[in-house]
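Handoff note, outgoing to incoming analyst
You'll be picking up this chain. Sequence as last confirmed:
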Amino acid sequence: MEKEIRILLVDDHAVVRSGLSRIFERETSLRIVGEAADGQEAIRKAQELQPDVILMDIMMPVCSGLEALPLILEKSPGSRVVFLTVSEEEADFLQAVRLGARGYLSKSASPEEVLQAVKRVANGESIISPHLTNLLMEEMRQKSSLEALLSPREKEILQLVGQGLTNAEIAQRLFIGETTVRTHLQRLLAKLKLKNRAEAIAYALRHNLVGRGRDAGAK
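Most recent structure output, in case you need it:
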C-alpha cells in the first residue's frame, strides 16, 4: 500500500486552495491535513500538523511565503516546501532555493504536474517547473552575455558598488577620479540594462560578485 502523503495548502485565495483540494482528492495517497491563508498562519499550522509537504504561494498578505519559509522549516523540519506561484522572478526563485525550498512551480502548471511534483518531493526529490527552468536558464544566459561586455574596470566598479561603496570611496580605492567612476557606472548600467545603483547592487549580490570584489580589493 502506497504511503500517505500529508499536505498543507497555503494560499491567500480560497478559490485556489479549493481548486488544489479537488486535484488532490483524485489520489488516495494524498491527504490535505490543513490550509492557511498567509505566512504567519502557515507557520502555526506547520508546527501543529507537521505535514510531509507544504504547497505554498509566495506573494501573500501579512507574511510572504519567502518570509515564512525559514520559520516553517525550523518548527517543522520534516516538512518539504514546494512553492506554487505566479512569480517568475529570478530573485524569488534563487531566494526560495537558498532558504530551503524543495520545489518551485508556476501556477500555469497542469494538475498532473502539481500532483507529480508533490509526490516526487515527498520522496526526496527537488522539482522545478520545466517552464521556469527554461526561463531562468535563458535569463541567466543573457545576463552572462551582457556581463561579458563589461570592461575589467567596469567589472571592478560593479563589485565595489555591490559592497555598498560610494563613488567617492570607489575613486579613492581605485586611484581614479570620481567623475571617471560615474562615467564607468553609467556605462555598465546601460550594458546590463539596469536602471539605477540599487539594481546594480542587487545584480552584484545575485551573481556573487561582492565576495570577488572584496578579494580583489585585498590583494
